[in-house]
Amino acid sequence: QKYTAAVSGELTLVADYPLDLQLKLNAPDMVPNMAEQQDIQLEVNLANSLRQLDIDTRIKGAVAAIIKGRVQPLDEKLPVNVVVNAPVLGWPLDTRAQVSASNSIVAIDGTLSDYSLTVTSNISGEQMPITSIQLGGRVNTERLSLPQIAVATLSGTINGSAQLSWKDLLT
Is-contact 59 65, C-beta < 8 A? Predict the structure, then answer.
């Protein structure tokens, strides 16, 4: 396989490391045995500075998604505000017949001590009814708390909550 990558832009090695970088990657026929050739193109734009890193990423081809937000990797609290938007995902990648997720959005906002997490998606498949999923909660280095879980399918809705802790042991 012949993949191509290109990096352009500017990075200044002073202060907060101001930058404006673009990365482009083309991976032809990345997913073998598909009915059609499925290239994957990745475009990453990094801007502002390493202290306040603005991210704008677009993935096209066999997988499609947009990732936008800001990360502060030099801050020990690791503040993050990122949204991942995937219009259509599925398996197998070429037909998405077994399972397909549409309008999927994952949002993370906060710091290492407590990130807010929301997930929404519509899921369907060969042996799966059309299902809408909405999750909302918080996650950190010790636990995941999802007080808002809603699953709508077959003309009904299931609401619930879940908590998972790994502070001492997985519980």
Answer: yes
